[in-house]
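Board notes (copied after class):
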Amino acid sequence: MARILGYIASSLDGFIATDDDKLDWLFQYDDMDLGEHDYRSFLKRVRTLVMGRGTYDFLANDPAPWGYDEHRVIVVTSGPIDHPKGKLEVRCDVDALIAELRALEDGNVWMMGGGQLQMAFMEKGALDEIEIYVIPELLGGGRPLFPPTGHRASPTLISAQALDKGCVRLHYRFDRSE
């Protein structure tokens, strides 16, 4: 059974992007040494990437080449994707998608991108672990790490680790009963 994982960066004040969906504040840390927790190392541990439409559109509008050809990519959206940038599948039913992902036997799943889809999975008890990289920047507003939905949970801290340039890695596990 596949494990469903989160891996996301947040500003110190809890935002993942500015109000206009810019990530310049994060890109200035691209040369940060995360050691074994590096993004490329994380990608090697997953087989399937799941993202919402907003994350897909952000990546599709980036002039860089599609970087996920070696992964199965699923976009959760209710609308069609004309001229997809890379090979991908589309799903609209989150409950059916969770069942499909749980049945996978070919590797872990990454809930990629913003906190909205990750929160939907948390609310359904379908996110197993999350790594949050807290970057020492205050944005003063923007897209929150997780949207306020009223959902409550008490994940178990697996580890907390200070990394390069003042970044802190927080690694949590969720009980399936939550």
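Comment from the instructor: The helical segments are 24-27, 39-44, 53-61, 94-102, 115-123. Residues 4-173 form a domain with the Dihydrofolate Reductase, subunit A fold (CATH 3.40.430.10).
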